[in-house]
Amino acid sequence: MKKFSLAVFLLLMFPMTSYASLFTASSGDLAASVDFSLVGRNLRVILTNTSTADVLAPGQVLTAVFFDIVGVGGLTPVSANLNTGSTVLFAPAGGSGPNVGGEWAYASGITGPGAATEGISSSGFGLFGSGNFGGTNLQGPAAVGGLQYGITSAGDNPLTGNTPVMGGSKGDPTALIKNSVVFLLSGLPVGFDPSVENVKNVSFQYGTALTDKNLPVPEPATMLLLGCGLIGLAGFGRKQLLK
Q: Between residues 196 and 116, which one has the greater pLDDT?
């Protein structure tokens, strides 16, 4: 009976859908996560710079996530807001959020890293146009570009690093977000499941050029193995219960 209870507890606490929607990658002092989930008929995308390292240069600022939503055409951007506990560093007047939709853009039908056809970005990369998540343009031109409103790490010290990551020049500061943004997109079909089978080719882009570091998300073999293990554990517990 105890073994069966443990199996049920694990399945309730760690359902496969929760694991399947979370994508992570890391390399050296870079680390990021993106969570795809449903909010009504909208797709919620939470993009986070999870590194605990201090950001010292633009190449450590997370500026985009690329992906494919399988079997779904282009989506419609709805909103972009600071996640709970996140702040805007070096914010211009009126630019501290929480609405940062004018500084981020969604695009589909593109060719991104790993041949991904969709993405969300605070920088142009020759792929993205104007900020289209609603809200006003908070800094710079209407078209997304440069480092502004990119995402610094959870461990960033804004008083250290080179000029661009310390607010830029005093007359033209560069706002940065520490450390997470929540996006909403609409246009999903009824019954869509944002699981690992339906979200593919996920990668995290840093800096302001596609030649900067891109972190592709590894194939989620560990997620599948974990799910199989929990299912097997549940089956074993059921056998014990029936004995």
A: 116
- Which residues form the domain of 106? 21-217
- pTM exceeds 0.85, yes or no: no
Percent above pLDDT 90 for the chain = 66
- The confidence band for 144, taking pLDDT boundaries of 50, 70 and 90, is very high
Cβ neighbors of 200 (< 8 A, separation 6 or more) are: 67, 68, 70
Express each pLDDT in 157-187 by its tens digit: 999 999 889 887 555 679 999 999 999 999 9
Between 222 and 237, residue with greater pLDDT: 237
Return d(Cα 25, Cα 34) in angstroms, integer: 9
Does residue 14 form part of some domain?
A: no
Left if phi > 0, otherwise alpha if psi is -120 to 50, otherwise beta: which for 160?
Answer: beta
Question: What DSSP letter does each residue of 195-230 carry, written as one string?
Answer: STTTEEEEEEEESSSTTS-EEEPPP-HHHHHHHHHH
Q: Which two tokens stand for residue 69?
A: 């939503």
- Overall number of domains in the chain: 1
Domain membership flag for residue 7: no
Dihedral of CA 212/117/137/103: which sign?
A: negative
Please name the residue that has the structure tokens 């020759």.
Answer: 126
Length of the chain: 243
Q: What are phi and psi of 139, to 5 degrees?
A: -160, 140
Q: Using CA atoms, how far apart are residues 153 and 86, in angstroms rounded to an integer? A: 10
